[in-house]
Amino acid sequence: MHSPINDNTPDRLFMPALSGFYNGFAQPAGWVLLRLFVGGALVIEGWPKIIAPFAQTGFVESIGFFPGWFWSPLLALINFFGGFALMAGFLTRPVALANAVMLGVTWWFHYTHPYGDALLTQAGIDAVKAGSETLLTPDGARRLADGGAAFLHQVQDKAVFLSAIWAVATLLFAGYGGGPLSVDRHIIKREF
Predict the structure, then answer these.
(1) 71, 103, 105, 121: most buried by Cβ count inside 10 Å?
(2) Number of domains forming the structure of the chain
(3) Quick check: helix, strand or coil at residue 192?
(4) Taking 70 as the threshold, does the pLDDT of residue 48 lie above it?
């Protein structure tokens, strides 16, 4: 049975001559690139958690994950080492599923806990307004006329959207595996 993600048989394509290119190069290379980018981003995000594995103990407990001393290092491991495993395509499905759950919780947190005005201090607003001619271009000063609230809203949106994109990408790997150029399929020759 063919997966809909790689069913590039000549009879299904508008340009049948491209089936060899799609199957032999484009899809395997696409899977590798996506794995490298998503896994690499997880490694970069996970590094600060690895060097301070208990730093998020209070945070994870504040969103209902007890005991924090267990969840904080576990999430660091899933994030950091899971990113390397995803990059290699090693144990792709379970690693991707664990990261998808973590990223789903991250998305939920960013969506339900917006930054709000708490990060905008009156001192910061006054400094921007007072130094707008020397610190910023006229366009930059106009964008910060609200004290940075619109910019903070953009930062919030990016946190929500990036968490969603990462969660969906890891769900894709959880469903379809690491692709033909993965340790799972190419070296071990078995997948979950």
Answers:
(1) 103
(2) 1
(3) coil
(4) yes
Asked if the model's pLDDT at residue 90 lies above 90, the reply is yes
Exposed e or buried b per residue across 85-94, where buried means at least 16 C-beta atoms within 10 angstroms of its C-beta: bbbbbbbbbe
d(CA 103, CA 121): 30
Which tokens sit at 43?
């490694």
Alpha helices in the chain (DSSP H): 19-21, 27-51, 57-62, 68-88, 92-112, 122-130, 132-135, 138-143, 149-176
Burial of 125 (0-12, 13-18, 19+ CB in 10 A): middle
Residue 74: inside a domain, yes or no? yes
- 102 lies in which domain range? 18-188
34 has pLDDT over 80: yes
